[in-house]
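Notes from hallway chat w/ T.B., transcribed later so I don't forget. T.B. wanted the structure written out for a chain they're using in a teaching module, and asked if we could keep both sequence and structure tokens in one place. Agreed to drop them here.
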Amino acid sequence: MEQTTRAPELGPFQDMWEAWDEAHEEILGKPVSHFRRATEIQFDELVAHLEAGDRKAAAREASDIISVALNLMRWLGHTPSEIGEIARSRAERRMKGQALEILEKYQRLHNI
């Protein structure tokens, strides 16, 4: 599997992907639960920053959540170009014109 590509398939997130290349093999050895827990930790930190009134720090934690998601995609075996295509396809087929329906579904099914 290709670890890094110079083409900007991930746009502003390409640098984030490349920053984690050095840990590529370690990431592949993690269980899927690692990514769930890492996301929970980042959300907890984000909420703490919001409670302290620091939206800039909360935004940095949101970037860390994106980093966890990218590493999960790496763990699933996807390259940056594949991730870009998956994201574009998902937005086109699942999200565009359906965002309100998705929010309503989550409200109805999960009460959020």
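Follow-up for T.B.: The first helix runs from residue 14 to 19. Might be a good example for the class.
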